[in-house]
Specification:
35% of the residues lie in helices and 25% in strands. By secondary structure, it is of the alpha+beta class.
């Protein structure tokens, strides 16, 4: 237990969750000189769970700032080409996505196994002892000028604020709602609580490389399901998306067994993922697999009292556009920029509740509309890939293949160029592309006319 009170200790942040958002928060807070602790419930930093993460140039710019971009680039790889296919495997679009991203932003971005990114973010921390494993936060208590996080073993961490980076099933979010409704009854409505919902589930496979897949990413359209197959130098990651029969809405949560995954895999085993490979062949060679629902939603209120949310706890999308981790990194950078400006520049040991409220509100305002847009685009891409309606099928079959090759990349770039960097670290020799980052535009000129 940290027994120093807020008058004698420096401003202290309690980060709950040591996933991508939590470890990124520690990297950013350490470089901002802000004291903190990261509490992660798992016993390992990088367990063998999940598959791959897309890291776009907005995130590589920040990884460059915190000094681990080269390591990330050597542990992953961009895809050679992105190929969209019909159910029989025929290619309808063949896009040089990562090369176009490089032209637009100076860096292509990279795809990397999630656990490798977690390990690199941890290894990159100047002080690793600030991350505590096996620490599950059970309760939060606002106490006078502090907030306390009570762990499963009843030990207590004291700080000035909590960042809930504990993922889509966030318990910090539930605790924040309880606190909000206790302080101002009715302030968090049923509608707000139900905004995280799952309409899709995904079967995730990690397996060995296959020559048929090459070094490409393949999206295969099908009616009410789709395959996404992503190659890496030493692994193939496959995601099979299915529509759920009915939405699963918070607080309901579904857990699937290995047998559920096996049954579902059987139903699509004989469908092709490219010209010469059936899904069943990938399934047979898998090293591990899991079946989970895909939640989506953007909360209307990301903070209350001394609690603020970041990452999947506040904004969650379907994964087909690959913006989950990227948006979490952007939100953490935005929040840390605000904190650094207020705390370190003004050299204040503690911040009043009203100052915190202003910082958190400004952070949410900067992010909210962007997250809504990304959620809508992500859902649209999922509906297109799974031929969810006749319209999405017609669009994907007859309209999109005729768009200019750069069109898709340029839609990504419109989002990417507006994402933040860390204001308090230089970007050094991070290369420049043909687009200017919005936070580096000095003339106020828009470059959107350069985009398809
Ligand atoms: C196991 C797993 C596998 C994933 N695989 C993929 C993938 O293959 N592809 C992809 O695009 N995205 C994947 N994601 C999602 C992706 O990591 C996120 O969308 C994105 O990176 C944002 O991360 P986050 O840090 O906000 O949340 P998360 O990555 O979910 O991290 C949340 C962290 O909080 C911890 N936590 C939760 N509750 C508590 C508590 N009470 N006390 C302390 N710690 C707590 C969790 O153990 C977890 O480490 C996965 C997430 C998880 C948890």
């Amino acid at each position: 237990m940290d027994s120093q009170d807020s008058a004698t200790r420096p401003f202290r942040v309690i980060v709950v969750g040591g996933g991508i958002a939590g470890l990124m928060a520690s990297n950013c807070l350490q470089r901002a000189g802000i004291d903190h602790v990261v509490l992660e419930k798992r016993a390992e930093i990088a367990p063998a769970e999940g598959a791959s993460i897309s890291v776009y140039p907005n995130s590589t710019r920040i990884l460059h700032q915190i000094g681990c971009l080269e390591t990330v680039e050597s542990a992953g790889a961009p895809a050679n080409r992105v190929k969209l296919r019909l159910p029989d495997g025929t290619i309808i679009s063949d896009i040089d996505l990562f090369e176009h991203l490089k032209e637009n932003h100076g860096n292509s971005g990279v795809i990397i196994e999630r656990r490798r990114l977690l390990q690199i973010l941890y290894d990159n921390l100047p002080t690793k002892s600030l991350v505590k494993l096996g620490c599950s936060v059970k309760r939060l208590r606002h106490v006078e000028d502090d907030i306390e996080a009570v762990l499963a073993d009843e030990t207590v961490e004291i700080g000035d604020m909590v960042i809930g980076c504990d993922g889509v099933h966030s318990s910090v979010r539930s605790m924040m709602w309880d606190y909000a409704n206790k302080t101002i009854p009715g302030s968090v409505t049923m509608k707000e609580k139900m905004c995280m919902k799952a309409n899709w589930k995904v079967l995730i496979l990690v397996g060995p490389t296959m020559p048929e897949i090459g070094r490409d990413t393949h999206f295969v359209h099908n009616t009410h399901f789709s395959f996404t197959v992503i190659s890496q130098p030493d692994h193939v990651f496959t995601f099979v998306t299915f529509r759920l029969k009915e939405p699963v809405i918070w607080p309901r949560r579904m857990f699937y067994t290995a047998q559920d995954a096996e049954h579902l895999a059987e139903t699509v085993a004989s469908y092709p993922v490219c010209e010469s490979l059936l899904f069943g062949e990938l399934w047979r060679k898998r090293e591990r697999a899991s079946l989970v629902n895909i939640e989506e939603g953007v909360l209307n209120k990301w903070h209350c009292g001394r609690i603020v949310l970041a990452g999947d706890a506040a904004h969650k999308f379907t994964f087909h556009m690959g913006f989950g981790a990227n948006s979490s990194i952007g939100s953490i950078a935005t929040l840390c920029n605000q904190l650094k400006r207020e705390i370190v520049s003004r050299n204040e040991p503690s911040l009043s509740p009203s100052t915190l409220e202003r910082i958190f509100e400004s952070y949410q305002t900067k992010r909210y509309a962007r997250m809504k847009t990304i959620m809508d685009l992500s859902l649209f891409s999922t509906r297109i890939l799974t031929w969810d309606t006749l319209l999405t099928k017609l669009l994907s079959r007859w309209i999109f293949p005729w768009l200019p090759e750069r069109y898709l990349t340029d839609q990504f770039s419109k989002i990417i160029k507006g994402e933040p960097k860390l204001e308090y670290i230089g970007t050094g020799n991070f290369p420049r592309g043909r687009l200017t980052w919005e936070d580096e535009v000095t003339t106020g000129d828009s470059e959107d006319e350069d985009l398809e």
